[in-house]
């Protein structure tokens, strides 16, 4: 029963949601909206559980003086201080809470994102080495696309932006669509397997 | 003489008046009807008019009402309007007038109509037929697999390498890092990743290796924890299961990326599995993993992130292969049959594309018309 009940719930919900998709009636829309609301409520509860988990893991790290335990002190302090500031000081645009978000969290996120440029450069350097015929084709294509995207490209050869556009909108897009078609079929098959109770790995274990 | 002038004035003004009136009489028709395939919240009004004028003025009233309420002024090029501010079941009448600078024509009025909610969206009939067709193929192959029919499934290198990757971690005495993407549990890619996590965790438990699963979503964290726990139980090693090694990190994308990069650098895992849906953080994670010397297997259906994984990882499971992974690893015939159904689905799509190409060259829109979802 421990396993059967979740499977029955999944099957009924799955079939219900498929049927709902084809019914434009307000009752059907209300059921859909209600389901979405449930998901939001459940997510909120899980977030509390997740934060609880962060507390436990970091607390244990500090207690057992594991390697990097002082980082856990920073994590927990930041979590507690930010939460207290938000609860007692409010979260409107001029609050300290928003200042923390705007002047600490956002710049840190932007810094992480900007690292991507360097990672792209190192990854590109590795993949563009013309060791095999495929890598040579990749190198040539990448060079054309990169040059076609910057002003100097059209100075070198006026037709370069056009060639770049053709590579992106025809060659690259055709391959992408091929993958996307497979993804579409795969996601339907996976959904069907879950709804029919054939795929049970997500419940943990086999039988 | 006076009468003569009066008659002349009358003729002149009548002429001007007649010129000023748009050619509405006999040329305009209006039709209001319940908008098809909706929840009964709108009425569609369509009209035909071939004369001159500047704008249309659309009016509405309920049947019981006497006063017309102006709804909208529309350009002469417009010939339809969807009134989505109606009450279901109430009967409405619509009227239209043509306006010039000085004159407003007489109103042409529609028959009374009310908005009704539909129980089936006929515009989605084709989708239903295709889903049912695909469902039938799936059921057929599941039935065939149950009867013992052998199904040939092509090799997927990335999935075959999973054994080697887990074995390598065991030999090196280092942990395995499993990242189930950064999407939520409602994403099929995340479900597929969780489906792979089950067999991987079982193998990890059998070998007695460490498994780390940092999560970006609290629900995914809970599910992955449960899956790993069950797998350890199934492998007969529940003593090795440590719930603190499958945890929720943060729901902020780049904070999560930073945390996972930190784990990679500190823990130096021998194997990194990046499976699920990824966004811009994909390369941050894959490049950091690459720099630590770990064997990396990535799998995603995010087409934009695939080139990054191909560049930085040892094996990449592409698109639909990710969905097939659970079945491939379990070797369960009923699950494998779905991969076969997918292949037949692809053949059907390829055949349709080919037919569309030929018909397109013959300048026929027949297939496009059939396949258009309204």
UniProtKB/TrEMBL annotation, chain A:
Protein name per UniProt? Uncharacterized protein
- Record-annotated membrane-spanning stretches: 5-23, 35-57, 69-88, 100-125, 137-157, 177-196
- Keywords of this entry: Membrane, Transmembrane, Transmembrane helix
- Record keywords: Transmembrane included? yes
From TrEMBL, chain B:
InterPro entries of this UniProt entry?
DUF6754, FN3_dom, FN3_sf, Ig-like_fold
Q: What residue range is the signal peptide? A: none
- What Pfam families does the database record attribute to this sequence? DUF6754 (PF20539)
Domain DUF6754: start-end pairs: 116-367
Q: What's the protein here called? A: DUF6754 domain-containing protein
């Amino acid at each position: 029963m421990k396993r059967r009940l979740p499977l029955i719930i999944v099957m009924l919900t799955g079939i219900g949601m498929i049927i709902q998709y084809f019914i434009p009636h307000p009752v059907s829309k209300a059921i859909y909206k209600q389901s979405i609301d449930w998901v939001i409520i459940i997510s909120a509860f899980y977030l509390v559980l997740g934060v609880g988990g962060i507390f436990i893991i970091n607390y244990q790290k500090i207690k057992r003086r594991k390697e990097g335990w002082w980082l856990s002190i920073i994590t927990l302090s930041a979590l507690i201080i930010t939460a207290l500031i938000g609860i007692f000081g409010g979260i409107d645009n001029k609050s300290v809470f928003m200042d923390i978000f705007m002047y600490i969290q956002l710049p840190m996120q932007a810094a992480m994102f900007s690292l991507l440029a360097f990672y792209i450069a190192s990854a590109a350097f590795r993949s563009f080495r013309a060791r095999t015929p495929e890598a040579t084709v990749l190198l040539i294509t990448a060079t054309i696309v990169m040059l076609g995207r910057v002003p100097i490209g059209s100075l070198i050869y006026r037709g370069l932006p056009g060639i770049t556009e053709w590579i992106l909108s025809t060659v690259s897009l055709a391959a992408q669509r091929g993958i996307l078609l497979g993804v579409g079929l795969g996601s339907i098959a996976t959904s069907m397997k879950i709804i029919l109770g054939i795929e049970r790995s997500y419940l943990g274990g086999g039988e | 003489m006076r009468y003569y002038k009066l008659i002349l004035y009358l003729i002149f003004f009548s002429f001007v008046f007649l010129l000023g009136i748009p050619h509405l009489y006999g040329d305009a028709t209006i039709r209001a009807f319940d908008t098809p395939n909706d929840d009964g919240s709108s009425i569609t009004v369509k009209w035909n008019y071939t004369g001159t004028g500047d704008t249309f003025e659309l009016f509405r009233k309920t049947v019981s009402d006497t006063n017309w309420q102006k709804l909208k002024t529309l350009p002469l090029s417009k010939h339809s309007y969807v009134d989505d501010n109606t009450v279901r079941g109430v009967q409405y009448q619509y009227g239209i007038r043509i306006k010039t600078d000085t004159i407003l024509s007489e109103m042409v009025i529609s028959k009374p109509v009310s908005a009704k909610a539909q129980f089936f969206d006929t515009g989605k009939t084709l989708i239903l037929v295709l889903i049912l067709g695909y469902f039938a193929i799936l059921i057929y192959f599941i039935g065939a697999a149950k009867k013992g029919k052998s199904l040939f499934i092509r090799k997927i290198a990335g999935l075959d390498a999973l054994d080697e990757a887990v074995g390598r971690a065991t030999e090196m005495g280092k942990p395995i890092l499993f990242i189930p993407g950064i999407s939520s549990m409602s994403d099929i890619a995340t479900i597929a990743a969780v489906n792979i996590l089950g067999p991987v965790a079982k193998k990890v438990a059998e070998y007695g290796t460490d498994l780390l699963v940092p999560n970006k979503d609290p629900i995914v964290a809970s599910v992955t924890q449960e899956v790993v726990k069950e797998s350890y139980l199934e492998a007969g090693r529940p003593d090795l299961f440590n719930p603190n090694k499958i945890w929720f990190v943060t729901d902020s994308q780049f904070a999560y990326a930073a945390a996972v990069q930190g784990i990679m650098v500190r823990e130096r895992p021998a194997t990194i599995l990046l499976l699920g849906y990824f966004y811009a953080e994909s390369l941050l994670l894959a490049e950091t993993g690459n720099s630590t010397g770990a064997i990396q297997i990535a799998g995603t259906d995010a087409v934009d992130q695939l080139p990054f994984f191909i560049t930085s990882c040892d094996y990449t499971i592409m698109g639909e292969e990710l969905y097939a992974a659970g079945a491939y690893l379990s070797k369960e015939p009923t699950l494998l049959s779905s991969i076969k159904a997918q292949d037949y689905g692809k053949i059907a799509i390829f055949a349709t594309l080919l037919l569309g190409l030929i018909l397109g060259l013959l300048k026929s829109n027949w297939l496009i018309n059939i396949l258009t979802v309204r």
